[in-house]
Each structure stands twice: as C-alpha cells, then as structure tokens.
Amino acid sequence: MTQEVQNGAENGVAAATAVVFSAFKPQLLVQAPKASDAVQFYKSAFGAEEVSRTMHSKRKAEQELPLVLSADLKLGSSVFSVSDLPDDAAQVKTEGSGCAFILETEDLDAAISKAIAAGAVAEGEVSEVEGSGRVGKLKDPYGYLWMISSVAKKPADVEA
Hints:
Helices cover 19% and strands 32% of the residues. It has 160 residues and is an alpha+beta fold. It has a single domain (24-87, 94-150), classed as 2,3-Dihydroxybiphenyl 1,2-Dioxygenase, domain 1, CATH 3.10.180. Strands 5, 6, 7, 8 and 9 form a five-stranded mixed sheet that branches.
C-alpha cells in the first residue's frame, strides 16, 4: 500500500480510484438574454469559433429572445461554453468572482487592439512580467477579466 492510501484508510476515508478527466470546459454565465451578444463578442474580440449551440425549448411566449442554454466556442485548442443566466436563476451571478482567463499570443498588441475594438475595456497598461513576457488585462462587456500575454522570450545563451 502506498503512503497516501494508508493515510486515507487510517483517516476513515476509502481509497479512491484515480479519476481522469477528458476536458476542462469553463462555462461563462451572462445575464439573459445577452449570451448571443457575448458569443459574437468572443468571435470578434478573440477569433473564437462557435462549434455548437443549444437553445432553451420552453421559452415563454411573451419573451421575444430565446435563451441560450449552451453555446460552445473553440479558442485555440480549448473549448468554453457561454450560457444565459435568467433573472430567476438560483445560481449566483459570477461577475467579479475572482475568475480570469489567460490567452497567449505572439502578437499581444494586435490582440489587445482587436478586443478593445470589439468592446473590451483595457485594465491598466501592458506590463512586463519577469518570466512571463508582456501581459495586458481586459474586461469584457460581461464583467470577465481576460489576461493576454506574449510568449516569454528565452534569453540567448551567453558564450564564455
């Protein structure tokens, strides 16, 4: 028995089988009915590609815009989801919850300019972060913080 399994068994915790996740897919909840607008923003600002969308089938007749249950967007090799959060939802609103998304790019200035043109707001100046390259922070129109960073350049080997 490994030390971890022994410790777990001694503490009354059953030894668990390893769990392997196939993906990590963040879901951004935006105030209804703004999910369609958010999807368009992420396409314009970051070049996201919409891969699927599921609409709410039981929308009340007096409400003209159907709710988006889930719109999956591909950004680089990752996928995230955008959904409408109705006023009567029991879920906590997520704006300002301490969550940030980080994108890496070779062309930081162009990426920031494109996002601002699409409606994002710059949060401070682009700064140099040791070991991480240059980093710029943006807030999207739905309250989420995006950090866009350049890939850190490795110092050239110094010949002796």
